[in-house]
Each structure stands twice: as C-alpha cells, then as structure tokens.
Write a structure and sequence with these properties.
alpha+beta; about 300 residues; six-stranded mixed sheet; eight-stranded mixed sheet; Deoxyribonuclease I, Chain A; globular; 14 strands; single chain; 8 helices
C-alpha cells in the first residue's frame, strides 16, 4: 500500500481530512490503492459483534516473531534480529491463532519484509492466517534490508479512513497509525502507537498525540507505551484527552516474568469496556492485552 504526503494527498474520508492540517509528520492513505487481505470476501462487512454494538480489540508487541523467553536470549539470540530463523514462521502462525477471535488487532514491532523476517510481511501473513478482511502496515524504521519495523493494523472490515503519523523524537522511527470505522451510531477512531524508550521523547510524543485527538469523541488508543500508568506523561495524556486507562494493573513485560505495565489500552468516556485481559502466550518478550469495547 502506498502513502502520500499531506500536500496534495488523497483524503479518503472527512474524518481523515479533519486532522490533515495538524502536522507535517502525517501521510494520508488512499484506500482505493490499498489491498485487502486474501480473506476479504469472507469477512467483508459487519461482524455479529459489531452489529450489536461491541468489538473485541487486541494489542500486541510481537517482537518481529523472535520469541524471547528469558533475558539471556537478548544476547544468545541476538543473531535473530539480523538473520531469519525457521521458528519465526511458526511463531507468526501461533500469533495468528491468538488474534483470530478479535475484530481489530494492533501490532507493534511487526516487520514489513526484511532479511530477519525472511522477507515476510508479518502483518499480512498474520492477517491472512487469521482470516482478517483488512490489513495495513505503517513503516516506521528501516535498517537497510536487515530490518523493517512498524505498526500493523488488522481488522474484519475495511476502515473508512487511514492516516500515518511520524512521532516526534531526536531519533526517528516511532509512529502512530490512525484508522476510522463507521459503526452503528458512531465513528470510531482507533490509534496504534509504539512510543520511544526515552522519557523526554515519550512526553513529546504523548503531547503530540493529545493535540491530534482533540475533537474526536469515540477513540481507542492501544500499543506499547514503554511507560507505566504512574508516569507523568501517561497521566497527563489521559487527563488532557479524557481517555480512560484500562490497563492500570496489567503487567505485560517481560513475558516470562511480567513485572512492568507498559502496554496499554485507553478509551473515550463514550465507550465502555469489559473483559480487560493480559494473555498468557509467551510468543514475544511482551504479553498481549485485550478487551471488549461497547458503545
């Protein structure tokens, strides 16, 4: 799928147009050029959950399918960051089985097709294995042909609009992927984010996102914040946007001994959540988080 810069960009919906003037870091995607996954005919249109005013949503940092299970793996398995391994594809299939019961899934650290992933577009692969009707990859950081990381969106139907934002920071490579869905009675904005490791950069990124979300009444933000719920930046972000943090007590990292709550789901006051869960699958160095959203 191709993206275009804001200047002269083809805007696919009025909701996307509403934020098009907010930043020079944005690209708007023309959905007429986007390619749905191979399962689009099977899942095009509303799911049963969507029709009754609820969606199952999942967020997962998949670590490019590398499957770290102990701290020593960061050293002994570091070669997997550069060289493909047969286990990657098996891990992606397991992630597909995990995500297959959800309506919208946001991925972080998904590889778009480089040497380390065996040139597999991981978002597309998982979406097709899981039967999603639509998938999209936001490319945030490319290291030659070695790695091509970014955010991935998978959903049961095509969104009415998409927009990519490069998040501010001294080191480029972090992004936010916006998508809009026309649901019975509401237009839902979902945002997939992967924030920086540095505290100062995260604060800038959350302040930037806060400005972008102004005026949107029905929002779900999901992703790897690399920050705890108690951090000043996360608390200020939730306060300024009036979003409710669902994952205040959800420890997701490291997956083999979860002690840190750094992966989050936030929703607007107009939405309600049930079944906020942390998955037990150790397919990455993070654990997945999920919830059922009602309106």
């Amino acid at each position: 799928m191709e993206t275009q810069p804001v200047t002269g960009a083809s805007v696919v919906s009025s909701t996307a147009a509403a934020v098009a003037g907010n930043s020079n870091h944005m690209a708007v995607t023309d959905l007429s050029t986007a390619t749905a996954s191979a399962a689009s005919e099977q899942h095009d249109g509303p799911t049963a959950a969507r029709a009754v005013g609820q969606l199952r949503i999942l967020s997962y940092n998949i670590q490019a399918g590398i499957r770290t299970s102990r701290y020593s793996d960061y050293v002994t398995g570091s070669w997997r960051q550069l060289i493909p391994h047969h286990q990657h594809r098996d891990t992606l299939r397991e992630i597909a089985r995990l995500t297959s019961v959800y309506d919208i899934a946001g991925l972080q650290e998904a590889d778009a097709g480089s040497l380390r992933s065996g040139f597999i577009d991981q978002t597309r692969f998982i979406a097709e294995q899981a039967g999603f009707g639509f998938q999209y990859h936001q490319s945030n950081r490319r290291v030659g042909n070695l790695a091509h990381a970014g955010n991935g969106l998978m959903s049961r139907w095509q969104p009415s609009g998409l927009a990519e934002h490069a998040l501010p920071g001294a080191v480029p490579g972090r992004g936010a992927l916006f998508s809009w869905y026309e649901l019975p009675g509401i237009t839902l904005l979902t945002v997939i984010v992967h924030l920086s490791l540095g505290q100062r950069a995260r604060a800038r990124q959350l302040a930037y996102l806060s400005e972008l979300l102004r005026g949107h009444p029905h929002v779900v933000v999901m992703g790897d914040f690399n920050a705890s719920p108690q951090s000043l930046a996360v608390r200020e972000f939730a306060a300024s946007t009036r979003l409710r943090l669902l994952t205040e007590h959800c420890q997701t990292f490291p997956s083999w001994q979860p002690q840190r709550c750094i992966d989050h789901l936030l929703i607007s006051p107009s939405l309600h959540a049930t079944q906020v869960q942390v998955g037990g699958q150790r397919l990455s160095d993070h654990l997945p988080i999920s919830s059922t959203i009602h309106w």
